[in-house]
């Protein structure tokens, strides 16, 4: 008898452990997203509004842009929200995505320690600033992963005609990790780094770091949104996913994005009206 | 050093306020890691017992392999489970990726070698003591394993707790297969990783303190159960 009872208890316990608790699971969509939108708290602000309006719950997996695209190619997403336009266009061209839409933008900034060893504070030409960092051999922390920010950073070095890879491990340090981890490392090492403004403003461990370079057109940071192609990935919840993409681009969605602030500062600027590619 | 003082303040504030989000995360952590521990024991204890009492060609190699698997990197386990459970993978049709079940599977793979290897050692030591007697009573095969496991149940509790400790503390596997989705697959360790990446170090440290307190609580509970049971058994 005792055995039967304990066996029953054990199976009850396991059933509890494995049961899939899913609030409106059938109507929940999965978004593979870049980290800046999640870490800054944007989703905490806009998703409840969307869910209330449509009854569709949204689950967000926040990883670097490269990994997000990879996961979506494996059909582990309904919607992709990232910031690396060429990679996004390739994703659509390869058939994984239905269509890519501009969603919103902000900008990248170069941050660094207050004592500013490369003397770049206040510069608005990011190319010359990077050159000065390289020439002075000041430490620069790079993402060194496959993220949208890293791709943007590589483009900036290229246009500055500097090959930082030659100094890898010396003054150029590739952390191979997310924006937050890289900022933590940069603050720890007193290194310059490139960050998106949303992550920087909502970042809590700034130390004595300040924005050094901002305002260059090259620092423009466009976010795009793509519905994963249901023909390639039959499991995709196309109807619900499309609703989410449409809502983000609608007046309601764009307003919700614009209304999101941290410390009184707007982090993302909606521009879905600017057309699709 | 101010961070530490602040972390303790935040930690006690969190525990004191019984923050609903925190409770949810703690419950999921316990649910996933305890389930992984139970499943690992169901697989690992018989395996450890079998390795303890049987003698066959290649046993030495197998022991080395099982012992080496104790050092499985969580990230590798997470990646393996991801590739299998991804929609593009062989078990994608189950739709288990980014669910607590996937996290239990990953942690089970991670800690089963620990349970098997450590229980093998415990049971083999006990077997040298018991072997003659068991032979004289003509007990063989699986019944030997059952007898050994039952008689070694108290040391094996510690083995199970070692597995639980490894499971509840790892972040590499669950963050890949769970995705750290808010209100769905966020556990203590992935929440700590998230707060760290947000630069909210006091909050991250506070969650770490809470995690330690939970591990302390689970261990204290199991040990007091063990003491009670032992008194009962030897009274």
UniProtKB/TrEMBL annotation, chain A:
Tagged with keyword Signal: yes
Residue intervals passing through the bilayer: none
InterPro entries (UniProt xref): ABC-Tungstate_binding (IPR052738), PBP_domain (IPR024370)
Keyword entries, A-Z: Signal
Any Pfam family matching the protein: PBP_like_2
Signal peptide coordinates: 1-24
Domain PBP: 22-250
Protein name per Swiss-Prot or TrEMBL: Sulfate transporter
Source species of the chain: Oricola cellulosilytica
Automatic annotation (TrEMBL), chain B:
Record GO biological process: transmembrane transport
Gene Ontology, cellular component aspect: plasma membrane
Pfam families: BPD_transp_1
Subcellular location: Cell membrane
InterPro entries assigned to the protein according to its UniProt record, in alphabetical order: ABC_perm_TupB-like, MetI-like, MetI-like_sf
ABC transmembrane type-1 domain sequence ranges: 26-222
Keywords for the protein's UniProt record, in alphabetical order: Membrane, Transmembrane, Transmembrane helix, Transport
Keyword Transport appears in the UniProt entry: yes
Transmembrane segments: 32-53, 60-85, 97-118, 156-181, 201-222
Membrane topology: Multi-pass membrane protein
Family named by the database record: Belongs to the binding-protein-dependent transport system permease family.
Name of the protein in question: ABC transporter permease subunit
Organism: Oricola cellulosilytica
Lineage of origin: Bacteria, Pseudomonadati, Pseudomonadota, Alphaproteobacteria, Hyphomicrobiales
């Amino acid at each position: 008898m005792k055995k039967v009872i304990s066996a029953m208890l054990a199976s009850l316990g396991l059933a509890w452990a494995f049961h899939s608790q899913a609030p409106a699971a059938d109507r929940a969509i999965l978004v593979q997203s870049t980290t800046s939108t999640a870490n800054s708290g944007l989703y905490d602000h806009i998703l409840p509004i969307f869910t209330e309006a449509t009854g569709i719950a949204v689950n967000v997996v926040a990883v670097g842009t490269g990994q997000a695209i990879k996961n979506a190619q494996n059909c582990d997403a309904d919607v992709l929200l990232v910031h690396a336009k060429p990679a996004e266009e390739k994703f659509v061209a390869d058939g994984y995505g239905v269509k890519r839409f501009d969603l919103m933008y902000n900008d990248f900034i170069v941050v660094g320690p207050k004592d500013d060893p490369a003397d770049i504070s206040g510069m608005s030409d990011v190319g010359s600033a990077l050159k000065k960092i390289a020439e002075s051999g000041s430490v620069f922390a790079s993402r060194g992963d496959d993220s949208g920010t890293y791709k943007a950073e590589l483009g900036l070095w290229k246009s500055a005609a500097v090959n930082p890879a030659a100094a890898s491990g010396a003054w150029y340090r590739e952390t191979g990790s997310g924006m937050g981890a890289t900022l933590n490392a940069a603050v720890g090492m007193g290194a310059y780094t490139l960050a998106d403004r949303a992550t920087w403003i909502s970042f809590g461990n700034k130390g004595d770091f300040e924005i050094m370079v901002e305002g260059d057109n090259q620092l423009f940071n466009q976010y795009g949104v793509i519905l994963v192609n249901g023909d390639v990935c039959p499991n995709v919840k196309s109807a619900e996913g499309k609703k989410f993409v449409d809502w983000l681009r609608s007046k309601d969605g764009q307003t919700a994005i614009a209304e999101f602030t941290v410390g009184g500062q707007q982090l993302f600027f909606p521009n879905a009206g600017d057309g699709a590619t | 050093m101010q961070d530490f003082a602040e972390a303790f303040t935040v930690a006690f504030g969190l525990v004191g306020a019984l923050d609903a989000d925190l409770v949810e995360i703690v419950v999921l952590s316990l649910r996933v890691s305890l389930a992984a521990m139970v499943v690992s024991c169901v697989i690992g204890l018989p395996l450890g017992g079998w390795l303890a009492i049987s003698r066959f060609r290649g046993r030495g190699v197998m022991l080395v392999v099982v012992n080496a698997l104790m050092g499985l990197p969580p990230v590798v386990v997470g990646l393996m489970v991801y590739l299998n459970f991804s929609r593009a993978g062989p078990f994608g049709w189950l739709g288990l990726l980014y669910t607590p079940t996937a996290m239990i599977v990953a942690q089970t793979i991670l800690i089963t070698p620990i349970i098997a290897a450590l229980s093998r050692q415990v049971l083999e030591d006990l077997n040298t003591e018991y072997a003659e007697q068991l032979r004289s009573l003509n007990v063989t095969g699986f019944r030997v394993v059952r007898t050994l496991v039952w008689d070694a149940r108290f040391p094996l509790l510690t083995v199970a707790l070692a597995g639980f400790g490894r499971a509840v503390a790892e972040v590499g596997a669950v963050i890949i297969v769970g995705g750290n989705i808010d209100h769905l697959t966020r556990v203590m360790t992935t929440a700590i990783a998230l707060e760290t990446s947000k630069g909210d170090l006091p909050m991250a440290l506070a969650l770490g303190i809470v995690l330690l307190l939970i591990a302390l609580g689970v261990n204290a509970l199991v040990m007091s159960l063990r003491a009670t049971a032992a008194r009962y058994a030897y009274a």
